[in-house]
Amino acid sequence: MLFSSKRRMFCSTVFLATAMICVFAGSLAFSQTPYQVVDHWKIGGNGSYDYLVNDPTAHLLYVTHHTRVEIVDTITGKAVGAITDLKNAHGVALDTDGKFGYISDGLSNDVLVFDRHTFKTVTTVATGTNPDGIVFDPLTKTVWAFNGKTNNATVIDTATNKVVATIALPGKPEFPVSDGKGSVYDNLESINSIVRLDVNTKKVTATWKLANCEAPTGLALDGKGRRLFAVCDNDKMDIVDADTGKEIGTVAIGDSPDAVRFSATRHLAFSSNGSGTLTIIDAANGYKVIENLPTPKGSATLAYDEATDRVFLAMAKYGPPPAPGKKSHHPGGEIVPDSFAVLVVGRK
């Protein structure tokens, strides 16, 4: 039977609409695929570990590992180098030119500057006592090291590798972020607050009390949405307006969080919790938890790669809990020698 032109048009429209619905449903289903452990990169060696930072252009992951920083190829998962002769590495900051990196060495009370092509040490710059959190500010091309025992921040001019300012803080600093537009933010663990600093005047411009957060550690920023994400010791994530300091919301996360990252493309916040979970929060739809992925105990720090949508967590195996009365550096027992690794989380 021959179709009339109107019927042919109707059928074509219905077919096209149905096909579009199917494609949209498929895309939606893909976007909601849960995260899972997709790889495990063994590094080995001994000692504690702290923060990680991803270099997406060079496909390299820098992982602080006690007296060294491990450098891992994120395509192959193989270690390609290490920066050594550190006393207790905490964090790594990378410049935006792809030339230099900066490591906060807590026990040396300095920042080590290294060449990102050769991984060789360029120089060291003295800071306050126990530099911990560290960030590169692209607007002023300065590095900000936050000193945990002297409650201040050391600002380093990367053109000269000289200290240009030391800024007193009203509490013990933790992890910092830069918005690239004139402000650096940092959690103040001892007074449950976030401090905002002006990168040009190098002065504190605001201190915001976090009513729902105890001992904030990790901090992330949604630059476009102007939201800060602080993870706290009372198993909470606090969402704060980056311009006014107003608390927008609070979300339950896992125990003992230490780091948080934000995906600008997918509007997700990731909290790594030392108790053994990775909490993933939808920041586009009411800040709801969409997944609590089980992870090895102690995996409390992470880095995120926006291009591949992968999370990297530092991890190790732990021995049995210490006997009553015996001291241990770790609540769950000492780190098992040669068990250090990077856990890779993504979507299949």
What does the model show?
It is a single chain. Helix content is 8%, strand content 48%. It has one helix at residues 5-31, and strands spanning 36-42, 52-55, 60-65, 68-73, 79-83, 89-94, 100-105, 110-115, 121-126, 131-137, 142-147, 152-157, 162-168, 173-178, 183-188, 193-198, 203-209, 219-222, 227-232, 236-241, 247-252, 257-263, 268-273, 277-282, 288-294, 302-305, 310-315, 341-346. The strands form seven sheets. It has a four-stranded antiparallel beta sheet with strand order 1-28-27-26, with no helix packed on it. A four-stranded antiparallel beta sheet has the order 2-3-4-5, with no helix packed on it. A hairpin with a 4-residue loop joins β12 and β13 (162-168). The protein is globular. Residues 1-30 have low confidence and may be disordered.
Labels describing this entry:
348 residues; mainly beta; disordered N terminus; 4-stranded antiparallel β-sheet
